[in-house]
Amino acid sequence: MSRGLNKVMIIGNLGRDPEMRYTPSGRPVTTFTLATSRSWNSADGERHTETEWFNVVAWGNLAEICKQHLNKGKQVYIEGRLQTRRWEDKEGAKHTMTEIVASEMLMLGERREVNHSEAAVAAAEIEGQAEEDEFPF
After folding, report:
1. How many alpha carbons fall within 13 Å on the CB side of residue 67?
2. pLDDT tens for residues 60-72?
3. 17 and 71 in contact (C-beta within 8 Å)?
4. How do residues 13-70 score in pLDDT, each as one tens digit?
5. CA-to-CA distance for 103 and 101, rounded, in angstroms?
6. What local confidence, expressed as pLDDT, does residue 14 receive?
7. How far does CA 12 lie from the centroid of its chain?
């Protein structure tokens, strides 16, 4: 059987402060949005900029680290995998959401204030993967 590859690496800025919740079993999960921008010049020399927004979800220890150390505007490197969820709401409308399930996070950008734990959490990996059926949202 051949193996596939689902790996995402992204550098961007947080669009909002992370939100942490707990699953019914007590497992922490943190969500936030990340914006990436790219710029280019068109054939007529006009400068263009495009921003793409990504939903990020972190589980377990990484979820706690993201909630504690990240805030709106912070530049981060996120590594993980793409996951698409589908659900139907109470009115019967179908929804789809594609998100990055983070496995690693590295804080980038300026260091305004260095604290004792920042070096220890600069790169954090989740041990194991999230249970696919545990989504508190």
Report:
1. 16
2. 999 999 999 999 9
3. yes
4. 999 999 999 999 999 999 999 999 999 999 999 999 999 999 999 999 999 999 999 9
5. 7
6. 96
7. 10
- φ, ψ of residue 55 to 5 degrees: the values are -90, 135
The neighbour count for residue 53, using CB atoms within 10 Å, is: 10
Instruction: Check residue 43 and report its DSSP letter.
Output: T
| Of the candidates 94, 24, 32, 27, the residue with the CA atom closest to the CA atom of residue 57 | 32
What is the full DSSP assignment across 46-89? Answer: -EEEEEEEEEEEEEHHHHHHHHHH--TT-EEEEEEEEEEEEEE-
Alpha carbon distance 9, 11 (integer Å): 7
Q: Which residue has the higher pLDDT, 121 or 21?
A: 21
pTM here is: 0.74
How far, in Å, CA of 76 to CA of 106, rounded?
Answer: 6
pLDDT of 105 > 50? The answer is yes
CA dihedral sign of residues 57, 62, 68, 72: negative
Domains of the chain as residue ranges with CATH? 8-125 (2.40.50.140)
